[in-house]
Each structure stands twice: as structure tokens, then as C-alpha cells.
């Protein structure tokens, strides 16, 4: 079943979440019509490879054209209209930046996987629940409402200033007219009456000046209160959501909404600034005793400039954290001399700033590392599909500086993966007489010099962003705090949903909790130390919990991904629990679990019944690691696996996947070929030879009810093959060999 088919079967509350991240940037119609094709492409790789992204974009347009031809024949007018619109959008919006559509589709697919994983969980995790707080959603709506109200108030004040200007011009005209009269004319009754009118007009002017200043003051106060409270909280929440998304959590959105709020507030403040400038102009033409403008205007202008400074400083954000294109799902881990990308955005989108802001990137202040490559670029509105004012650095490389002795500091396999660094960015905005210096920094990054350090470096990134909201605590690992076990388990599930397409259920998480704590625990409020997670070896093992888990992720990604996504690998279950599950099942029922003693190993255990029918026995095969799975697909191993028990003919003991799914029904679609296919010499291989295949065979020497050790179930050796010959006729062996069924390991 395709991922999109699974999405369509979700409950309405999850479908509403899916609906939120499909918009005109990537219309849902295309996701629906091209589901299979979209899911078969590597959008993650294309998101960091422009040439690959361009090819995928062109192929996407071709796929849309094919759908357009199909619906044209069906005369579906509405769909024809939508597809033509979408085709035009794809060509116009992404032709100059094809990687952006790759990022969007990759994020959508990832978010679908996360939602599918969340739907399979009986209870929503604490972190995700906090991110979807209804209070937060209500605050977002309030911010947008208040920003809109402030914008309207500023525009209404513009009309008041214009009325004040017109009133003053009329006063000036009347006053100058009287002043131009002869002295005798000024004593007339008519002139005296006109003087009374002028006095009334001056009183009105004074009242309107005070009113306009009062309205301007209220607008400034509203902006100040909004920036100090709700908008600041919104920005902090977005940054927290970004932290969580970086470690596999829900896709963070809302930056476009924040940009709209910041831009409207900046426009309102500049509008108020122009209103104050107009009042200063009116002041130069007319002033009087008790005039409020010279008293109030300087204070109001100072407050406006202060708010603009703060608004601009808060608007300079890292939109996409540093990430190596080679490891898109491991952001903030940077390898020396390897390029990484990072994207920044100014949330105040004003046309006057396009190509006017040059951003400089640096690293740390301790002079241990320097950035090579293009580290100064101009922000513009052309590179982003949504027209945001942003800049993306794509060719930066961290390089470790040599020490005074001529050798490099910690370069090499011993570089500390708990040492945090920061990529800093600075720029200057010059606009309407204001000069504002802006600075921001990435979340802490970990430097490595060898990919073997990547797992532990990623563990550091997970622990930091799980444990703290502080975006710049570079001394965090001097005394790392404990983490709540329930939150850690939620993040571990995200590692699976984001990296290998399927998260962990409550039973699997319970097993991991027991693995971490050494015993069954109620983990809702349990605290786990950093050392327990990543530094201390598991009891009786030569590796840590995290190294063990990371090896399993790598095994799934490279060798058993389709089986994992289908949900047929139970994976995280102890030996004791597996026997409880299997003991009452039909003989031949088996389950798949990850090895607890071998890094990156997967095994299967099946239940069998002794001839007397009174007792059951369990058999576990030696774990298969990536080396053996590179030679033989795991689905084929399950199909072809044989055991030799006593004097019996070799047979496949695997009948039903737990609880009762026929083996071929579960894994049939993943077999590389049908088991009854007979290879012919012309099918391939060296001419004149019959192609051969590997077949996994194990031996069980007796029917003891004692559990078998893994060494009892090793792949078939030449000596075992000799036993096989004793129990099969020459004709049977010849037939099997001719069919390419047997090959000695």
C-alpha cells in the first residue's frame, strides 16, 4: 500500500493536519494523481543537488502533462483547468530554483510519515502535544487580528493628519489674507469677525493636533505591547518548533505568517514615522503657545525608532539550520572540509531592501575554526519561491585552524562530539535615515572530522535540542541536564518515522525503556541521564544504547526498509517477551526482532512442537548483519530458509508471521523472484555455466527442549551440505542445483 493510500485512511483529525501543509506551493491534486511516482523519487537527495532537482522538476512536469492528456480524453473540465494552472505554477515558480520544490515535497512526505506514525500511537507524545496547544493557536489568531487592527489604525491616522494639514492650510490662507490688508481695513467690524473665526480655527487646530498625537501614541503603544508580549512569544515558539523539527519532530510552519505580521508592523511604524515628520513640517509653518507638537513629537519619534530597531533585530532569523547535503536528516552536524548549506530570512519584507543587505557568515570567536567558501552574500526576493527576503549559503566549509606548533587542534578521530560551536551572521540595514546592525546565530553545531563520529555527534544534537530552549548555550555539555524519559522515547520514535518511514508503537517504546533502565519502569516522569543514553555501555555489552539503536536505523535504511515500512518487523522485543508471544501459536509461527547482542543485526525466532505434542520449543537463527544482507535480500532469506533436523529432509520452518499472517502474503511482494523459477544458462552469468543463488540452511542436531544458541543455526557449511547429500537423492540434488536453488556458503 502506498504512503498516500495509508494517509487517506486516517481519521479526520489527522487528515486535517495533512491538509494544513498542502497549498499552492505543492497542490494536493498533484500529490493524489502522482502518488506512486512521487513516492518512488529521492526528493531528499534532490533538495541538496541542483542538477538532480532540475531533472526531477522536468520529470514532474512531464508526469503532469501525461495526466493532462488523460483527463482531456475524459473531458473532465475542472481537472483540466486545475492541471493547467498547476503546470504553469510549477514552471514559473520553480524553474529558477528547482531545489525548492524538492525541499517542499521532501518535507510533505516526511510530515505524512510522522502523522502516520502518530496515528499508530495510542497516546500523543508530550512534546508533540505541547506544540499543538490550543492556547498557542488562539494566540496566533490574536496576533494576526491585532496586527491587522494596528495597520487599520495607522491608516486612519493618516486621514487625520491629512485633515489637519488641510485645516492648517485654510488657516494660513485666512491669516495671511488679513495680514495683507491696510491698517484701516483691519479695524472694520468684518475683520474683527474674521479674527474671531481664525481664533476658533486655531482652537480646532490645537484640538486636532492633540488628537492626532494621541492617536499616534495609541498606535505606538499597541505595537509596543504586541511586540513585547504575543509577537515575542510567537517567535520563540517558532524557534522551539524549529528545534524539535530538526531532531525529527513535526514539520515546523508559521514563518510566512510571522513574516506577514513583522512586515505589517514595520510598515505601520514607518507610516507613523512619516506622520510625525509631517507634524514637524506643520510645526515649522505654524506654532503657538501650548503647541503639543514640540513637546510630544520627539518622545514619540524616539519610541518609534526604538521599536523599529527591535523589530528588525528580531526579524533576522535562521530559516534553515546548517546541514550537509550528504546527510539531510542529520542537521547541525558538520564535517570539516565538507560543504554545508544554511538559509536566513529577514521577516520584514520591503521591496526597498531587495539586494541591499549583505550578510556575512562566521564561526565561533575562539579562532579554532574558519569558514571557507563564499561567506558574504546579498539577501534578495528572487531565490525563494514564496518571494521572501532571504539568502542561502550553499558552499560554506568549516576548516580547523593549525595551532602554533603547526599541528591541528583536535582534528582526527578524537574530535570531541560534545563540543558545541555556533555559525554567526551579521549585516546592516540602512533605510529611511536609519542604520541598524543585525546579528543572529544558528543553533549549536557539532564538528566532526570523520563520518564514524556522526552517530555520537547526532546524539549530542538530539540531547541538546530536546533538553533546552536556549539557542546559544555552547557550554551545555559541561553539565548536561537529565531528560524526561517519556520525551526521549518520543524523540526516538521520531528518528524512525523521519529516517526510515515508520515510527515506534507503545510496545516497542516500552522495550526501549526497559533497555535503557535495565528493568520495567513507568516512564511518564522518569529522568534519564546523558551518560546513560550515550556514554555508558549497556550491561554486559561493549557498546552504548545509542550506538546500538543507531546501528539498527542504519540496517533498516540500507537493507530492510520496505519490510519495516509495511510494519512486519516487530523489531524491539526481548527474548523473554517473544517466547510469551509465540508459545500458544501454531507451529511455524515466527517473528522478526533486532539482535540485542550484535550491532545492526536482525534475527527471527519460530515456535515448534515436539512429536509428543506436549511441549513447544523455540529456535532463533544467528542474526543477519549488513554484510550478509548485502549478499541476499532478507525477504528471500525468509522465503528460502531451510533447516535440517535429525534425519529429516530439509524444510522451511517459517509458516506464519506473528500473529497469524501467511508468510508469502506478508513478504511475497518483496521476493526478488518466484521460488519455482528455474534459471537457464542463457539467463546470465558466464556462458556454459548454470547461474547459482545462495540459500540459507541451518542444522538442528536434536529435539531437545532446551533453547538453541545462535551457533546451532548457522548458515550451511560444506560439512552440512554433506549431510544434505545423505538425505536427498541424486536426482533431487541435481534438480535443485539445475534450478539454482542451492549454493554452499
UniProtKB/TrEMBL annotation:
Residues 564-660 form the SH2 domain. It holds the Pfam family SH2. It is found in: Cytoplasm; Nucleus. One of its GO terms (cellular component) is cytoplasm. InterPro entries: p53-like_TF_DNA-bd_sf, SH2, SH2_dom_sf, STAT, STAT4_CC, STAT4_DBD, STAT4_SH2, STAT_linker. Its main location: cytoplasm. GO terms for biological process: cell surface receptor signaling pathway via JAK-STAT; defense response to virus; negative regulation of developmental process; regulation of apoptotic process; type I interferon-mediated signaling pathway; type II interferon-mediated signaling pathway. SUPFAM superfamilies: p53-like transcription factors, SH2 domain, STAT, Transcription factor STAT-4 N-domain. Keywords: Acetylation, Activator, ADP-ribosylation, Coiled coil, Cytoplasm, DNA-binding, Isopeptide bond, Methylation, Nucleus, Phosphoprotein, SH2 domain, Transcription, Transcription regulation, Ubl conjugation. Signal peptide: none annotated. GO terms for molecular function: DNA binding; DNA-binding transcription factor activity, RNA polymerase II-specific. Belongs to the transcription factor STAT family. This is Signal transducer and activator of transcription.
Amino acid at each position: 500500500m502506498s504512503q498516500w493510500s495509508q494517509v487517506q485512511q486516517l481519521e479526520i483529525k489527522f487528515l486535517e493536519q495533512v491538509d494544513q501543509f498542502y497549498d499552492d506551493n505543492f497542490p494536493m491534486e498533484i500529490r493524489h494523481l502522482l502518488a506512486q511516482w512521487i513516492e518512488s523519487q529521492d526528493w531528499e537527495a534532490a533538495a541538496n543537488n541542483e542538477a538532480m532537482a532540475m531533472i526531477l522538476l522536468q520529470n514532474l512536469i512531464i508526469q503532469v502533462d501525461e495526466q493532462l492528456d488523460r483527463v482531456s480524453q475524459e473531458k473532465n473540465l475542472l481537472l483540466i483547468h486545475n492541471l493547467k494552472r498547476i503546470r504553469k505554477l510549477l514552471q514559473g515558480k520553480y524553474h529558477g530554483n528547482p531545489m525548492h520544490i524538492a525541499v517542499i515535497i521532501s518535507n510533505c512526505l516526511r510530515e505524512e510519515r510522522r502523522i502516520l506514525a502518530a496515528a499508530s500511537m495510542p497516546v500523543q507524545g508530550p512534546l508533540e502535544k505541547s506544540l499543538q496547544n490550543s492556547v498557542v493557536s488562539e494566540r496566533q489568531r490574536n496576533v494576526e487580528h491585532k496586527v491587522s487592527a494596528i495597520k487599520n489604525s495607522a491608516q486612519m491616522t493618516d486621514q487625520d493628519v491629512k485633515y489637519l494639514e488641510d485645516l492648517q492650510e485654510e488657516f494660513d490662507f485666512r491669516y495671511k489674507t488679513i495680514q495683507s490688508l491696510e491698517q484701516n481695513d483691519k479695524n472694520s467690524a468684518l475683520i474683527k469677525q474674521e479674527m474671531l473665526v481664525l481664533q476658533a480655527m486655531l482652537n480646532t487646530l490645537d484640538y486636532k493636533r492633540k488628537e492626532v498625537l494621541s492617536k499616534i501614541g495609541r498606535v505606538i503603544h499597541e505595537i509596543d505591547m504586541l511586540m513585547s508580549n504575543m509577537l515575542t512569544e510567537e517567535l520563540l515558539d517558532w524557534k522551539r518548533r524549529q528545534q524539535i523539527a530538526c531532531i525529527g519532530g513535526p514539520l515546523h510552519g508559521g514563518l510566512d505568517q510571522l513574516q506577514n505580521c513583522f512586515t505589517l508592523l514595520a510598515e505601520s511604524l514607518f507610516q507613523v514615522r512619516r506622520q510625525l515628520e509631517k507634524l514637524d513640517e506643520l510645526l515649522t509653518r505654524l506654532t503657538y503657545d501650548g503647541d503639543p507638537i514640540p513637546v510630544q513629537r520627539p518622545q514619540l519619534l524616539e519610541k518609534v525608532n526604538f521599536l523599529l530597531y527591535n523589530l528588525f533585530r528580531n526579524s533576522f532569523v535562521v530559516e534553515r539550520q546548517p546541514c550537509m547535503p550528504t546527510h539531510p536528516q542529520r542537521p547541525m552536524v558538520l564535517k570539516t572540509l565538507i560543504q554545508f548549506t544554511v538559509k536566513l530570512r529577514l521577516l520584514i519584507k520591503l521591496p526597498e531592501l531587495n539586494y541591499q543587505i549583505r550578510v556575512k557568515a562566521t564561526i565561533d570567536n575562539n579562532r579554532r575554526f574558519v569558514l571557507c567558501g563564499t561567506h558574504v552574500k546579498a539577501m534578495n526576493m528572487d531565490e525563494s519561491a514564496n518571494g521572501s527576503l532571504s539568502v542561502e549559503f550553499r558552499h560554506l566549509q568549516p576548516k580547523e585552524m593549525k595551532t602554533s606548533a603547526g599541528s591541528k587542534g583536535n582534528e582526527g578521530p578524537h574530535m570531541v562530539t560534545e563540543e558545541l560551536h555556533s555559525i554567526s551572521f551579521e549585516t546592516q540595514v540602512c533605510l529611511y535615515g536609519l542604520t541598524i546592525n543585525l546579528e543572529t546565530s544558528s543553533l549549536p553545531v557539532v564538528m566532526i572530522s570523520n563520518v564514524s563520529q556522526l552517530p555520537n555527534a547526532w546524539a549530542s544534537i538530539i540531547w541538546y535540542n530536546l533538553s533546552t530552549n536556549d539557542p546559544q548555550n555552547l557550554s551545555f555539555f559541561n553539565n548536561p541536564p537529565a531528560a524526561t524519559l517519556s520525551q526521549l522515547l518520543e524523540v526516538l520514535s521520531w528518528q524512525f518515522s523521519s529516517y526510515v518511514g515508520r515510527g515506534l508503537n507503545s510496545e516497542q517504546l516500552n522495550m526501549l525503556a526497559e533497555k535503557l533502565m535495565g528493568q520495567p519502569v513507568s516512564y511518564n516522569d522518569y529522568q534519564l541521564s546523558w551518560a546513560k543514553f550515550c556514554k555508558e555501555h549497556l550491561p554486559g555489552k561493549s557498546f552504548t544504547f545509542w550506538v546500538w539503536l543507531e546501528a539498527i536505523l542504519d540496517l533498516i535504511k540500507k537493507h530492510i526498509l520496505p519490510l519495516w515500512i509495511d510494519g512486519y518487523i516487530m523489531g524491539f522485543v526481548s527474548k523473554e517477551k517473544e517466547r510469551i508471544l509465540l508459545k500458544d501459536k501454531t507451529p511455524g509461527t515466527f517473528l522478526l526482532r533486532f539482535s540485542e547482542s550484535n550491532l545492526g543485526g536482525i534475527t527471527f525466532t519460530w515456535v515448534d512442537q515436539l512429536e509428543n505434542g506436549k511441549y513447544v520449543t523455540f529456535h532463533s537463527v544467528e542474526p543477519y548483519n549488513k554484510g550478509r544482507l548485502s549478499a541476499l535480500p532478507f525477504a528471500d532469506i525468509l522465503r528460502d530458509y531451510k533447516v535440517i533436523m535429525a534425519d529429516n529432509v530439509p524444510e522451511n520452518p517459517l509458516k506464519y508471521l506473528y500473529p497469524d499472517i501467511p508468510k508469502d502474503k506478508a513478504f511475497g511482494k518483496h521476493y526478488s523472484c518466484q521460488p519455482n523459477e528455474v534459471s537457464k544458462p542463457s539467463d546470465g552469468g558466464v556462458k556454459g555455466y548454470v547461474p547459482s543463488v545462495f540459500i540459507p540452511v541451518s542444522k538442528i542436531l536434536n529435539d531437545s527442549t532446551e533453547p538453541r544458541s545462535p551457533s546451532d543455526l548457522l548458515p550451511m557449511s560444506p560439512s552440512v551440505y554433506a549431510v544434505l547429500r545423505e538425505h536427498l537423492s541424486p536426482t533431487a540434488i541435481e534438480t535443485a542445483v539445475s534450478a539454482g536453488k542451492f549454493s554452499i556458503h
